[in-house]
Amino acid sequence: MADSAPLRPSKEHIEAFREAAQSLKLYRRADIPDAKGESLIEELYVDPLPNDHVLNTMVKPNTTFIIGRKGTGKSTVFLRAQHELRQSSDVVSAYIDIKTVYESSQVDPQLLAKAAAIEGSLSPSEIGQLLLYRHFLSTLVRDIRKEIEKRIKTSIWTKVKRKVGGSLSDLFAEMDHLLARAHDDHFMSVLGTFQKQARDRNHEEEAGRDGAAGEVKLGTDPSVKLSLESSVTFTTTSEREREYAEVLMRIFDIRQYITELRALLEKVEIKHLYVFVDDFSELPPEAMQIVVDSILSPLNNWSDELVKFKVAAYPGRVYYGQIDKTKIDEVNLDLYSLYGTADLASMEDKAIDFTRRLIERRLRYFGDTRARRFFSQEYSKSQEEIWRQLFYATMANPRNLGYVLYFIYEAELLYGGRITLRSIGDAARRYYEEKIEAYFNMKRFLHETFEERSSIFSLKDLLDECVERARALRSHQRSSVIRDLEGRPPTSHFHVVTALDSLLATLELNFFLTKYFVMKDRDGRQVTVFALNYGLCQKETIIFGRPGGKREHRLYFVERIFDYTPILQAYLRTNQEIACDNCNATFEPEQLPALQLFGMQCPNCKAGACSVTNLSRKYEATLREVSDTALLPQVELGILHTLGTEADPQFAVEIAGELDCSYQLIGKRARALAERDLVHRDTNEGGRRVFTITDRARSIYMDEMVVEEPSTPSPDRGRDVE
Prior knowledge:
Elements: H1 11-25, H2 41-44, H3 53-58, E1 64-67, H4 74-85, E2 91-97, H5 98-104, H6 109-117, H7 124-152, H8 158-164, H9 167-180, E3 188-190, E4 215-218, E5 221-227, E6 249-251, H10 254-266, E7 272-278, H11 285-302, E8 307-313, E9 329-332, H12 335-339, H13 344-367, H14 384-394, H15 398-411, H16 421-436, H17 438-443, H18 450-472, H19 480-483, E10 493-497, H20 505-509, E11 513-520, E12 526-532, H21 534-539, H22 565-575, E13 576-580, E14 586-587, H23 592-597, E15 610-614, H24 620-624, H25 634-645, H26 652-659, H27 663-675, E16 679-683, E17 689-693, H28 695-701
Helix pairs in contact: 1-13, 1-15, 5-7, 7-9, 7-11, 9-10, 13-14, 14-15, 14-16, 15-16, 18-22, 26-27
InterPro entries: P-loop_NTPase, WH-like_DNA-bd_sf, WH_DNA-bd_sf
């Protein structure tokens, strides 16, 4: 039954709101089961574009890259697409968390170094590549087998079952055999891992030689081969011993492996294999290149239309290698890419509509109610401002929306309150302070070189400059645009020339900023408009948005006072160093394009290579205070941050949803953290493993970061930009 606005939410409605918000918070890969344990993905999925355009693109038989920040729903689109593909009898899909696969393929670097030191052995990178093949293909076959088992239970495969009949058991047996090849005796012997030693001494010998030859193809080049002759020497009365090393590595021919997989799939009339590769951008850059060059590109280019990859990645963190970009689809789930094809107002309207559809669909399912039931009475007739502020607070990001709604539930609905503009602002500020702002605090402890950590903190320098400028513009009376407005003017948005977009990419990826629109400024230049985080604006008392009511305010964001290009240029001059690794010569930022034109070769000594380093001047002392023993990898820091900001013990799957990784990886890393007395691993009443942060970890990693202001202002601080 539809409800009317004046009705106060019941306890059941409030609980439905909590469930809806919680499901959006976990807007990731995990299925959302109903009471019967069945997936609700079809009932809850909301496509960002009309007519399920994103979904329809994903189910086409083309390799597709889906790009978006965390929480935009990449994994949810994957889940919905796989659900849709199960309705087709000639297609099968497999889901691969590539970060987990990559982690599983890693070997102790010391062991790799020892193997590589043996004459004639494979290099560490080659061994790593072969291990990656093994883990990727075994994961692929395992998930295909699971998908086919699911399909046998559905009516759509009745015809296939009748045709194949009893041979289904044979099919599974063959797939198990193929799976076992990733670990057992069908590998070829090549120089690599097993060492056998003996000494040569001059004595009589009776020897027999047992020869064996093996050949291996690496990558996609059949000309790269290794052969091995294995020798076994038997000695009698002689004391002549021979010292030698034989290393065995078992691998397979990846092309032949896929050919055999195709033959198996053809038995059940499957024409296409869709491989959904998640968490691609979570890989280190070198690992990303290995995955593409060794697996994705070869399979995409020579699988004869069998394999179609669907790859989830972050904006600006994609490596295509030899994949032909003209022959693939690309879907971008971030704000401007989705809705910025027309004018600014249309973009906002479309994003607001998506925000509304997300919330209404969840509330309708969990409580057969509407969002207006939870709005304050003052907005009962005109709800548009509430929806607009919810969009501003979340930038139409489903996971961000879930957190904001959940914080509203905790602060207002539980106590009989309603949703107001004030409650949205408070929730957005809490989300910013607890989840986003902590990015820099935790990065202090990242297990990287000082230069790497300083480079990250240099972006905080830049963010501080942007925020200070926005605060200063609130009382900027030299501009008629500001002077003619009543009350405090909005100063949340700014623009820069598009050539400098990349400087802000990391801040945008982590939600400090959002790319809002691309347009021409007052001088006819192509510029990108960015919006500061809504919660950050609440914290800094910066009014968000733009004035309404007048035609000239359509260009408000590109007024000259909002041009932050000089701030970014000053940042480059102050924080960026370009130096030669041979003669130590330094160069100005303006010289970078010329250096790049010649491959970063030093023009002074002609022998060295130039590199770019961004260093934080403002936070250098803070970074140097961190002990090396406190440094941790990215995932471990993410686990501690999640546990430190959640009141209740967390399951591995909940932490994984927050960090965009697999629960298996969380379990593995949390075990290591527990050994360092940083995490408690307990079992709840239901027998499930739960995790909490220790007092020791909280005192080291979760204390507020105290940063002293620099003694001298930066060149552009507080300067009026006309």
